Every structure is written in structure tokens, then in C-alpha cells.
Structures
1.
Amino acid sequence: MSDSAAERTYPTRPYLAVSAAIFRDDRVLIVRRGRPPAHGLYTLPGGGVELGETLEEAIIREVREETGLEIAPLELVGFRQAIVRDAEGRVERHFVILPFAARWIQG
């Protein structure tokens, strides 16, 4: 995502992100987050959508950047809203995440 992590803290708008459940044989890939927020937690790979990028382009790019894998997005499978408030009730983070089902190609 082109915006820095600091710019995504106490945002003025929600940020759009994508993730992928990547299927290979009878398994699904999960990754462990290496940076805040949610450092150390297991999740689906993904990240922010950049200006001018389609959702499919974004998930292909994010998965390649994070894992080195090449994937084929198959279908958008829903949405998730992640809204985190601080102790005073102010919105500290706000993401709308669109998860895809995807097929592993190589890597």
C-alpha cells in the first residue's frame, strides 16, 4: 500500500484491502504477520489496493510481494470490516477487506 502505516493510524477514511485463501491440493495457505498491526498473528496473505489497480491485480501483486507465489484469483467470497477504536472511542484503524478464493500456480 502506498500510504505509510502512520497515515493509516487515525485515518480520515476507510482503507480498502484484499486477501486470498490460496488453495493447493487439499490445503490453504496462511501466513504469520511480520509487522504491526497484528504482528505475529496468522492470517491470509494480502494488503492494500493501490490507486488505479483492480482488485484482482491487487491480490496478485500483494501475494507475490508477501510470499513469492503466483496465483489465479477465482472468486470474490465476501467482505470483512476491521474497525479498531482506542480507549477514547476514536477510530484508530478502519479497513474494508475483500477476500478472494485463489488457486496456486507456482512458487
2.
Amino acid sequence: MASMAFEELFEPTVMFFRLTNSLAMFQIIINEILQNLINTGKVASFIDDVIVVTEEEKGHDKVVEKVV
């Protein structure tokens, strides 16, 4: 029992290897990858969520295919 309490003290509270702002960096990368689709207004992204919006069902599959 004592070792379990001891192990809990060493839970990481910061990211290792000086990784800071990883969520912001991930958002920047996603925006760069999907830049052309975001500029057309058919795609929006927020961290790990990508939303595809089309007016007609016909072109929706093509946009999703480009995103994937």
C-alpha cells in the first residue's frame, strides 16, 4: 500500500522534452493541412474536430474524401 501512494507522487504535471503549447501547435498544423478547404468555407477545424459543411449532399462526400 505504501508503494502505491509513493508512485502517485510522481505523476507528470508537465509535458516532457520541453513540449509546450502542443495543442496550439497541433491546431496550426491542422489549419495548414486543410487551408484550401477552410478558405472555401466548406471545412472548419477546432483542435481535433473537423466539421464539413456543404449545401448539397452531392458534393459532401468529395469534401470528406479530401479531408480524410
3.
Amino acid sequence: MPTLSLHNMSEREQRMVLIGAILAVLLLIFAVLVPLDHSVSKARERITRKQADLAWMRSVAPELAAAGPGQLPASNESLLVIVDRSARESGLGAALAGSDPSGAGGLQVRMQKASFDAMVGWLARLSQQNGIRVDGATIDNAGAPGIVNAAIILQR
């Protein structure tokens, strides 16, 4: 069985092997390494945002703990108005699918295709700024990573 060697090939065959090798390297770079680098960059951005959120939460935790439950000023606005306004301010207006009364003074809010991170931030602000607490929640994956459908019961 004859052995194949680059030196035994014709000049045309050598060029074809060289072009094939270059194409294989380019395919590896553009099909594997570039998308991988893009994913790593996005993950780093998410980590940076989450670290900033954590730093903020840690900075307000002592203030919230000192205030204790029921220490926040009462608002004359209805729970529905506060929830709707704050959801829109938090960028969740499009995800707000509806709301229904729930018990004495409670409100069940439905979200569709909402950013989980934005929703958690919104709930934290509702608690901190308005004294509204979450009595219960059902959260399901809505397909894409970080996007959820939720039913949340809020109470003053």
C-alpha cells in the first residue's frame, strides 16, 4: 500500500490540501470559537449586572431591617394603581397580562414573557418603597432563558 505524502502529490493536489486546511481552520474559528467568545462576553455582562444588584441589595438591607414590617409610609393609592405604575416604570408593562382581586386587600398579578431579573427587582422595589409583600407566586419558564410566566399574589 503506497503511503501518501505531501511531497508525493502534484502541485495542484498540494494547493487543494492547503486550501482545505485553511478552510478547516477558518470553519473552526468562525463556527466554534467566535460564538463561544460571544457567549462568554454575555455571561460576563450578566455577572457584572448581578453583582451590581447584589451590592445594591446589601446596601439597603440594613435600612430595611431597621425599618421593620409596617414602618413604610402608607400610600393613598390603590394597590392596583401602585402595581400597574411600578410595573411600567420597571419595564414590565408589556409583560403585565392582567390582575384580579385576591382576598382582603390582595391582588393577583399575571405576567407573561417577563424578564425574571426585572420582575425580582420590581418586587423588591414594591416591598421597599410601598410595603407590598408577596404572599405567593407561581413562576414557570416561558421558553427563552431568563424569561418567565408568573402569577403573583401581592398584599399590603
